[in-house]
Input
Amino acid sequence: MKKSEQLTDSMFYIMAALTKPRHGYAIMSLIEETTGGVITIGPASMYTIIKKLLTQEWIYLHDGSDSRRKTYLLTEKGRKALEEDLKLRKQMIQLAETGLKEAEE
Amino acid sequence: MKQTKYMMSSGTAFSEEKDMKKLRRLSLKGWHVSGFKFMGYILEKGESSDYIYNLDYRSLEEDEEEEYFDLFSSSGWSHVATEAGIHLFRAEPGTKPIYSDRDTTAEKYKSSGVLHSILFTAAVIFSVLVAVIAWTAIAQYSNKWKTEGKYRLAKLGKMTFPLLLMITIIIIFVVGERGYAIRILASSIIGAIAVPTIIWCIISLHHIISRKTNENKR
Output
């Protein structure tokens, strides 16, 4: 994936959760809790994305001592990619917000 | 001993969903799938309950298995069986699906691995060989009919093969994805060119060797 390419929503959620070391299931629960159960990540999607982020070197294995629940953390490269995408998403939201406000006036 | 029975798969690659629905129906009747068995599933008799089933394709290293299966069991999907990178899971109805977005769902079928593509290519090559043999057989019959004076039949025979070939190519392009169709055609061309070449080489080599031994005898 190129740097300019946008993150998928699932990737965005997972990377946001990995600003702290977390294992796969902890990521899934965090996302489900913070979105009030609206967004859930399926286990197969979760596993696919973890593998993808690892090969892209956006996350790294933080602690593999518990082979059932390995924890991951964002790399510097991943952090930059997330910040880059966050900027874009903020612009998206702003566009919608100002648009809606103008329509009200 | 537990009562078991066998259910044939209609080919997981072609009708995964159909298979999974059938397994659910059988679970309602008290027959629960417990594993894979040659081209199908093995079922065990138990109490009737409503379970939904799902497949995932992934080749896992030994040290990856625990993490992978833990993710599923934490989400309510219990592991039933695994064979050749195909994993079967079972859950209560209403459990959230194992794939939650389009991007990863699309990758599900791509990640089935190198073995899959080798088998696929081999299958196409063999199909082409069979087609060539069939073509030869049809041509022989046509020639026979021609000498017997059955011209119409002979013409029909000669037309059969190109017609079938055209229909096949059209079906491949209409039904399949473009990348898939190109792969099929590439494998077919390999089958049609490489295999006869190899056979030709072997025959030539055989001729050279047998000629040499004959010369030696003289």
Notes: The domain at 9-104 of chain A is CATH 1.10.10.10 (Arc Repressor Mutant, subunit A). Residues 31 and 40 of chain A are 7 Å apart (CA to CA). The beta strands of chain A are 22-23, 59-63, 71-74. The radius of gyration of chain A is 16 Å.
